[in-house]
Design brief:
Blueprint: H1 5-59, H2 64-73, H3 91-99, E1 103-108, E2 115-119, E3 143-145, E4 169-173, H4 192-197, E5 200-205, E6 209-221, H5 241-254, E7 269-276, E8 282-290
Parallel strand pairs: 2-3, 4-7
Antiparallel strand pairs: 1-2, 1-5, 3-4, 5-6, 6-8, 7-8
Helix pairs in contact: 1-3
Length: 292
């Protein structure tokens, strides 16, 4: 049966209208997403500038007048401490910690955009996945220390005698942002030359400056719980040589290249983890050994 010309044209017009509506909707949605991401980026940049100012203000030596004022008000000021110990928070982070006590440290790598506070909320590990340091919604989120990890209180120089030693492995998660912010450029470490040029990871706890040298970089994924396979994200504490050997042998086998850096039971480590898309729930991982 031949479809009348006017019906055929009507169907064609309806199809064009539907297609146009879908196209317009996609464009609008894409524009709104772009605008939100741009606003989130501006918000993050403003937040970073604010935090940088706090660091500068805290580290500039006080004038004699400021010292007198500080002395006069010392009896009224009580700086909070995560464990209420006598350990002193580094001057650079005092004001930041007072502003948001979820801050557990600061991560930076020279020559990269990675230069951010690290947050930890053990009762809700994902709290900062979509929030900034100011706790306002932001798609960039924050860098997050795993809930099972302990950044430590005090200093290694003092044997952490007034606080607690950090976990064997500190796992820090961050978004792979297309803008390159957060851990957006972390996958650049798949290139050995890039890793060699940016081989030192700096992570300050609230109490001490720490440095780590890269020992491995590899692709992995988040596996199902019942899968009997190496899961890098489960290694936090090495209580035995066997614990360490199992983890160390696996990351060295997975590593995309040999950094020439070796490690032993008793060393401390840092693991930076971000999403990647080579497989479902893929991850890209960089591991460093503490050297200072």
């Amino acid at each position: 049966m031949k479809v009348p010309e006017h019906l055929r044209r009507g169907r064609l017009n309806i199809g064009l209208i539907v297609f146009s509506a879908i196209t317009v909707s996609a464009v609008v949605a894409g524009t709104l997403l772009w605008l939100r991401q741009a606003e989130d980026r501006r918000s993050l940049e403003a937040q970073q500038e604010h935090l940088s100012e706090l660091i500068v203000n805290e580290t500039i030596p006080p004038t004699p007048q400021q010292e007198q004022a500080d002395t006069a008000s010392a009896s009224m000021e009580v700086l909070p401490s995560p464990a209420q110990t006598g350990c002193e928070i580094l001057p650079a982070y005092r004001a930041m910690f007072e502003e948001n006590p979820d801050m557990i440290g600061w991560l930076s790598i020279d020559g990269t955009v990675i230069d951010y506070p690290v947050m930890q909320t053990p009762e809700d590990e994902d709290y900062y996945l979509d929030k900034g340091f100011d706790k306002q919604p932001n798609s960039n989120g924050c860098l997050i220390l795993g809930a099972a990890c302990s950044a430590g209180i005090g200093t290694r120089e003092q044997g952490y005698e007034d606080g607690s030693a950090p976990s064997t492995n500190l796992i820090i998660h961050g978004h792979t942002m297309q803008s390159g912010m957060m851990f957006g450029n972390l996958p650049l470490y798949e290139d050995h030359d890039y890793a060699s040029e940016h081989s030192t990871i700096c992570f300050d706890s609230l109490y001490e400056h720490r440095e780590y040298e890269i020992i491995a970089a590899f692709y992995s994924q988040v596996y199902y719980k019942d899968q009997d396979i190496f899961k890098y994200y489960q290694f936090v504490q090495a209580d035995t040589q066997e614990d360490f050997d199992n983890w160390y042998d696996n990351i060295k086998a997975l590593s995309l290249y040999d950094t020439g850096v070796t490690a032993a039971f008793g060393d401390e480590f840092i693991t930076l983890s971000c999403c990647s898309y080579q497989v479902e729930d893929g991850r890209f991982v960089v591991v460093g050994k503490r050297i200072a």
